[in-house]
Amino acid sequence: MKTKPTTHEGTSRRDALKGGIGAASLAALGAGAAVPAAIATSAVAVGAGPAQARPSHEGAMASRVTEPATGITMFPDYARTIAQMAYVWGWPIVNMMNRSATITQAPQPSLLDGVLPVSPRGHLAMLADYIDPSETFVTCPNQDVVYGLGFFSLDEEPVVIQVPDFGDRFWVYAMYDARTDQFGKLGKPYGTRPGFYLLVGPNWRGLKPSGITEIVRCPTSLANVIPRAFQDDTPEDKKAIQPVINQINAYPLKDFTGKMKIVEWSKLPSVTGPKSEGGETKWVVPEKYFDQLGAALDLVDPFPGEEALYGQFRLLLDSAAQDPALKKVLVDTAVETEEKVIKQFFQWKHNGRPAGNGWNRSTNNAVFGIDYFNRTGTAKSNMFDNRPTETQYFYTDSDASGTELNGSGSYEITFAKGEEPPVNGFWSLTMYNDKHLFHPNDLKRYSLGTKNKNLKRNADGSLTLYAGAKSPGGDKEANWLPAPNGHFSLYIRAYWGKEGILDGSWKPPVIKKLA
């Protein structure tokens, strides 16, 4: 089992970071070297109060990298420089923290505003059909799967998650740590067998309880799970999926009995949620961000090489705590960075890599590591992607000429015969408005793809889909995605992609604007 590296003084790498030990001491910890008692003592003292000057160290320490100096007077322009990076780095983590804090307020598994599945910490709730188009709690939802959602604090409370027999149906449980990276592998692509899986945190100690199929460890104590079960857009499949999804469940280990707990998710009560202003719920508030960054640093251990960032960010917070004027600089920087940097990620050209024909494709999705650009971009534009082997995403704001998509125009998207996304699971094309949410329409149609059994093919076997505010009429209407009058974007999902999806050789279709 995973254990914290410790010195003979009992100082862990995490304790060192919390206490403010700098790069030199961290290098020694990472190498497993003994750390002088003076440093271990200093870590406790610094962690308990304001930053203080530390004694100099000779001998072996003299050849190591100097740690950040404490007791300095940090001037505004320097603080602003570090603060901007701190904002971009921690934005997804603070986002996760705030989602968890809100969603776990539910007194029991419920539907937030009758739309989003929510539950107390350590539990999950499921939808019983596609997500309602009025949903504004997360951007880029899909209407190909039945979703679930739960947030956990796994060091405090290990959680049992049930996996029923899905038969031939595509399914995957995407489990995310506090950084929004996925952990564990539960789903059809992995050949997961039905059973009971125990989710535990990085510091959980124990033996596998009787009746538990497998233990899945999360690298952070905060985690969430989003089950996805594919559903055809037919009355028959909407009925057939119910006994399956009613067996999807999660609950604290103390409640485990070895028997499947069944819930009729279609009968969940509704609870009132935060008011929406038309776009996604504002999960990161710039004015409060730096009040939460310290908790974010405590929540996730640094990846190799991140120790220097942690040291700078903690020094920044220590300095601001002692200087109200400097704290105001941090708040102003957060507001400015939100506007000038974070908002830019809402443009698909700033997400992932070019994929051809004016589209971009997701990159490192849900396995971001230290790819801060794509991690923060995804957290802003379409949080909770699946990892690349589970799903690849293609998205665009423009047609083939580079002109912004607009509902006042009419567009054709043609897949040549045999050139639909090559998948083992399913694929879809989804229409989003300028806020990356569904556009309400009389047809109640938001995506087209594998789930649709009435798509009309061309005589040569190709498939043309249509997008625009105006119906193409006749038989073509079955292939039409209604658009808002203003800007919209298009988004392809390829679940459980084959080689062409995985290696990037498959290209998304040209989006042709009609005269």
From TrEMBL:
Checking Pfam families in the record gives: DUF1214, DUF1254
Q: Which InterPro entries match?
A: DUF1214, DUF1214_C_sf, DUF1254, DUF1254_sf, TAT_signal
Q: Which SUPFAM superfamilies match?
A: VPA0735-like
Q: Enumerate the spans annotated as DUF1254 domain.
A: 123-252
Q: Which residues form the DUF1214 domain?
A: 390-498
Q: Which domain of life is it from?
A: Bacteria
Q: Specify the protein name.
A: DUF1214 domain-containing protein
Q: What high-level taxonomic lineage is stated for the organism? A: Bacteria, Pseudomonadati, Pseudomonadota, Alphaproteobacteria, Hyphomicrobiales
